[in-house]
Amino acid sequence: MQTNTSPPPTLDDILRLFQETDRLIKERQKETDRLIKESQKEADRKFQENERLIKENERFIKESQKEMALSIKAVNTAIGKLGNRLGEFVEEAVRPSAVRLFRECGIDVHEVQQNIVAKRNGETLELDLLVINDKDAVAIECKSHLSIDDVNEHIARLEKIKRLLPRYKDNRMLGAVAGMVIPENVALYAIRKGLYVIGQNGDHLELRNESVFIPKTWG
Question: How far does Cα 133 stand from its chain's mean position?
Fold first, then answer.
């Protein structure tokens, strides 16, 4: 019985097989390198795009913060000017009423001085109003919206009046605060500290202190 057998591969056949395999490996490697390069290129493009977006966002944030800061500054300036004008309004309202109010509580006012500024030995003192007679002097601080900080600042002011205004060294120095808006807790705090409190009641001003109130004397 005869059988068909394939001739054994020759050396050339084996060489061709290796060459073909090497060719296929190189082509596959080339394709793989191409895909890797394209992926890296796309990744780099996306990274650069993200960097651009991040920088753009940072620029936008900085510009927004700058614009916000300018807006806040403008608003604060406007509020400050309004607060000053309101304070001046309160001061102008209190000045003519001060004579009546303090005469009603036994202090015979002879004179009302406004916007007093004193500088002595490196210290500065500013008073909105000073109500005076031969024996007494009442320093009044006027605010549109009176706060506890305003009360404390005025107390510090009262403690140096006789030092900076020695012509009043023989006067009994008293203190008062006035405001268009005075929260109840602020009024009570000022009264406990020995200050007269002048507030609005309808269309006129009044002293919030009880008739038994004894004011504190400074200096």
Answer: 42
Residue 44 lies in a domain: no
What is the rounded radius of gyration, in angstroms, for the C-alpha atoms of the chain?
44
Q: Which of 163, 161, 159 is nearest to 132 (CA)?
A: 161
Three-state SS at 200: strand
Degrees (nearest 5) of the Cα angle 114, 201, 106? 60
Please give the DSSP secondary-structure letter assigned to residue 218: B
pLDDT in tens, 45-87: 887 888 888 888 778 777 767 776 765 665 555 445 544 555 5
> Does the pTM exceed 0.85?
no
Token pair, residue 179, equals 């405001």
Report residue 123's pLDDT band, with 50, 70 and 90 as the boundaries.
very high
- Per-residue pLDDT of 10-40, as tens digits, reads 766 666 766 777 687 778 888 887 888 887 8
HSE-CB at 41 with a 13 A cutoff on CA atoms is 6
Query: Would you say residue 45 lies in a domain?
Result: no
Q: What is the CATH number of the domain that holds 112?
A: 3.40.1350.10
> What is the domain range of residue 118?
88-207
Residue 71 lies in a domain: no
